[in-house]
Amino acid sequence: MESASNHDLLVVKNLRLHFKARAGVVQAVDGVDFKLRKNQATVVIGESGCGKSSLAKAILRLLPRNVDTYDGQVLLNGKDIMQYNTETFRREVRWKKISMVPQAAMNALNPVMRIGDQVAEPAMIHMGLSKDEALKSALQMFEHVGVPVDFLHRYAFELSGGMRQRAALAMSLITLPDLVILDEPTSALDVLTQANIMNLMKRVKQELETSFILITHDIATSSELADSVAVMYAGQIVEVGDAHSFFAEPLHPYSKSSWPVCHVCERQ
Amino acid sequence: MSEMDNGAQSVSKTEDEPILQIDNLHVWYELKRFGFGHAGYVRAVDGVDFDLRQGEAMACVGESGCGKSSLMKTILGLNRPTKGDVIFDNQRLTETSGEDLRLYRAKIGYVQQDPFSALPPFMTVQRILEEPLVINGVSDKKERIARIRKILEEVKLTPIEEVLPKFPHMLSGGQQQRVVIARAMIMEPKLLVADEPVSMLDASVRVEILRLLRNLQEKHNLSVIYITHDLSTVRYFSEYIFVMYAGEVIEIAKMEDLLQDPKHPYTFALLEASSDPDANNALVMREVPRGEPPSLVNPPKGCRFNPRCPKIIEGLCDVKRPPNVEVTPHHKVACWLYDEEGMNAV
Q1: Which residues touch A55 (CB under 8 Å, ≥6 apart)?
Q2: What is the pLDDT of residues B172-209, one digit of tens each?
Q3: I need a labelling partner for B117 at 20 to 30 A (CA). Which of A37, B158, B287, B335 fits?
Q4: CA B190, CA B180: separation in Å to the nearest integer?
Q5: Rounded to whole angstroms, what are the CA distances from B41 to A189, B30, B115, B299, B300?
Q6: What does the DSSP 8-state code read for residue A202?
Q7: Does A264 contact B271 at a Cβ distance shorter than 8 Å?
Q8: ipTM for the whole complex
Q9: How distant is the Cα of B304 from the closest Cα of chain A, in angstroms?
Q10: Between chains, do B278 and A160 touch, taking CB under 8 Å as contact?
């Protein structure tokens, strides 16, 4: 019955996450299905408030208190991680298999801890490395993401936005997870820094064979990394397709309506 | 086509008299050591020159920290120029103060970046739009209401009766931005300064707001300065674009010329970095200059882009400030590559 083939890293089936609110139930994620193959990148495109960040939280089970409904299936390498209890999920899945760079992660770095120690921390906690070993692998990650090595000993406020974003990315990669979820990784950055970060993610994808879920509202930037595209609207995925056919011709009316802003050189 | 004709006409009518002249403008902020004692200047705007004629739109493109907001605030009369001057409607900003400055400001509309934080949360739409009229001495209540209705119709916030008593939080992002535009337009300004008016909005709303601004501009023969970091939105606007880097204007040209045929290596990099949606993007690396914009306290010698420039001419770009070269009519670039001395050095 399971249609998950060996190439599928993540299969999400009928995932629902509803919140209780004073005005009623908020159906933030309402029956979402999609698949992600190994070493591929899926882009989730949608407007603010369409539930794309909630989708990321639902996959990683990072839930707030006011959850109303939370069900469906999330198969990681063929195993249904929704069945894991909280402790197993924390030990087996978070950081080890799936890590996440939340929105505005670069502003969420601890201001009183050196960057190197912060990046090394997940490796110590989740992979049981000693502090020296963890710092060594933090150093390697810094080389991967293009942060100068002496930045290990600096504090967050001494780094520019682009460098902090790189450090956040290094932190998410240090446990060598299969899947990294990136929530709006470049939306607060300048155009050139944005292009640099996208270059970096392409390289990481090749070198470390990581899979990505990239959550964004920026269609043009998303095309830099996407192998497949899912368009989300009001809690549901309204269009799924591989990148080539989607960027050639989006089909859903919503995708079409957000299209004309993003071409640079033609005037209407 | 008709759009272009209109533009050409209004230019020829008032060609000799720009409405806004920026004349060798410097805006420096002083740095203090321990709260007193001089510790250098932040050279946010360092020698900017341009003219804007009635009915023209000009886009200002640059990354954060390049001085575009300082430039805009100075035009609005919120900053004082350190050196140079802003001449708006035959009025020199350095010679204007007190009541005159208030009247000066009333002639310029300002569209803020983030509509939600630009609107007072405890005022209704009617009060928000009435306020500028009250302050500027429109004492007849009936006239005020009539003008509010007219402007709301123009920004297409209808039905008016339903919108007037609403508070900002009851409106969507796009509607809020329309209120901000209405507020900027209600004193019938000659110049509109729009500071990233769509960067906080969703993609599907952006086009509508940009078209609205364009329509208002054509209808009222407004001059507009449109500030953005996003090259993909400027084509909805603007006859002219200028690109700023580290406090200086490095290239100024007609919109099509700049987008089709950029001259300065930095403009080139900006265009290269802002992608069109295309699946093949994922297969290639983009050529982006390394590093980050320089500190404006101690900017690099010579051309300020030289530490990141892929086409640097050693011994020239890092020593002497580049001249403004007019490559083709209306297309000026501050780069040694297009100057004779620079060509000889290569």
Answers
A1: A15, A17, A29, A32, A44, A215, A232
A2: 888 999 999 999 999 999 999 998 888 888 777 888 88
A3: B158
A4: 17
A5: 25, 5, 32, 11, 14
A6: H
A7: yes
A8: 0.77
A9: 16
A10: no
